[in-house]
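Record type: monomer structure entry
Structure origin: computed from sequence
Chain ID: A
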Amino acid sequence: MDYQNCELCPRKCRANRTNGQLGYCGADNSIRLARAALHHWEEPCISGTKGSGAVFFTFCNLGCLFCQNFMVSRGETGRIVSEERLAQIFLKLQSQGAHNL
């Protein structure tokens, strides 16, 4: 990933997140994870019979006014995790039967 000229989202703010500059979303170059869990109560066509792997990241770039997860998506809730730890979390959700992430 190119954190020097960030274009990870459609806003393409080109922030240099490697030197401390924050992107439009407010994020630096760390991964901040608020919650990851198997979620059974989404629409059945999405979660199937075993659930979805729900992963909530902090610093959403959408900025929806009526976001039901505002404290997570726009705040600084969550903990910083490494790419390796995030991969482990994804694999754990997969092993628990998640139909998707």
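Annotation 1: The radius of gyration is 15 Å.
Annotation 2: The beta strands are 31-39, 52-57, 79-81.
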